[in-house]
Amino acid sequence: MATFQSSPLITLERIASQLGCSLHDEKLALHLDEIDDLKHFRNYFHIPKIKDIPSSDQSSINGTEDCVYFCGNSLGLLPKKVKTYIDEELEKWSKMGVYGHSNGTRPWGLGDECIVDLMATIVGAKKEEVALMNGLSVNLHLQLLSFYKPTKERYKILLEAKAFPSDHYAVASQIQLHGLDVDKSMLVVHPREGEETLRTEDILSVIEREGDSIAVVMFSGVQYYTGQFFNMQKITEAGHRKGCFVGFDLAHAVGNVELQLHDWEVDFACWCSYKYLNSGAGGLAGAFLHEKHFHTIKPTLVGWWGHEFKSRFKMENKLELSPGINGFRISNPPILLVCSLHASLEVFNQTTMKALRKKSILLTGYLEYLFNYYFGNTKPNSQKPYAKIITPSNFEDRGCQLSLAFYLPVKAVYEELQKRGVVCDMRQPNSIRMAPTPLYNKFHDVYRFIGILGDAISTVEKQPKD
Length: 466
Hints:
Layout: H1 8-19, H2 26-34, E1 68-69, H3 81-96, H4 111-123, E2 130-132, H5 136-147, E3 156-160, H6 165-177, H7 182-185, E4 186-189, H8 200-210, E5 214-220, H9 232-241, E6 245-249, E7 268-271, E8 286-289, H10 309-312, H11 335-348, H12 353-375, E9 387-389, E10 402-406, H13 410-419, E11 422-423, E12 425-427, E13 431-434, H14 443-462
Parallel strand pairs: 1-11, 3-4, 3-5, 5-6, 6-7
Antiparallel strand pairs: 2-8, 7-8, 9-10, 10-13, 12-13
């Protein structure tokens, strides 16, 4: 695969020219898969068959074929080693009972610590800056309890408009916990009139203008609805210049884009692991605390697992708090969730985020080109196309995901895609999110999807209008 000094379209055009074919020729997709250095990773995952997708219509399609799975932004696919690792722990439990806490590849008492270095590599952090614990929203609450200490002058939390609901609710409840007015203390940044995504200069302008009253800047890394990858480094630098703490919800960023949490001096971050990290529904979440805060930021709520390991079992009820993020741990790690995350992180650590990102840029760029070629043009006798991409066109400002806003009835299009074996998700009011994931998606998946989308649109176009 080529590196990207320019747009993925230029790379696609060059390869197509060498093959003597057009960019929308199936030959290009097959060749891109052939030269893909990461193609073997697909074999590490279970790819659902069309016949096993509950909403598929097997009367008109080949049900034994792999589905087109573009939903890694919602739930990643199952790594094949998950069952092996879970079976190992069940076997240990059955044979040695309580002794499993201190024996085996993943001693239960240290299960999270056995794999935390694998996670730290993915988020660009030091091992001691990362903990695996709880769920994302729980971790966000724990971190905000320590970082959000409003004063009369500095009491606002800044976040993007239409942040994911759990983030919005968490921020609102933290503000209310301090007896403050949410309308006055929650500061949100909206896109400009007629635009879908936020401009970096507008975010920085709000921080510069309002920064003296902002206690915490709390943004997404990648916006769940539009797929926009925010410039985390610039946002962090801007927040720090105004004396704000800066944290991120990385649910849609971790395992998707390159992150350098330590070098960017992000204050705190949290993430789930069941999307691009493929740990399974409700998987073990992660949290980051920069080492510069290890001796100044303390957890507001503490539990036994935040106590230093060397004296934890003295049972003296005299807290010796672990420094940094490890002091935020409250309970012992759920070992079966550790197993599923372990299986996925091992796959990630057989490559690099740089290599995955390189493939992702080309894969999503290929989807963008084909979508615009076939469906982005104006419909006959109409002023509108069938749909438009609302995700930023600049590949540096997005991850895997493209969000497609339809002018046709979006639910009808979504249902027709499901019938034909495409797994994606719909978000109101009118978008379908597609996320070709570099670990297990092929370029031919993109080619197949475009043909299926054409059939789906044709079907919806013929349906009687209400």
